[in-house]
Write a structure and sequence with these properties.
about 55 residues; elongated
């Protein structure tokens, strides 16, 4: 229990609302790019498989 009590304050840094908002927006953009990348990769492999069959 004492280890947990020493680790928790390390993650509780004080930030203002603007910094928190910027971090949230950045994280959302990164997740969106990953999501778009996975979709693009799937469509590309489907296209390549379709071309190979012809």
């Amino acid at each position: 229990m004492s280890t947990l009590a020493t680790v928790i304050p390390l993650f509780e840094a004080v930030h203002d609302a603007a910094e928190e908002g910027q971090k949230v927006i950045t994280a959302m953009l990164i997740v969106g790019l990953i999501f778009i990348g996975v979709i693009a990769l799937g469509e590309l492999t489907k296209y390549a498989a379709h071309r190979r069959r012809r």
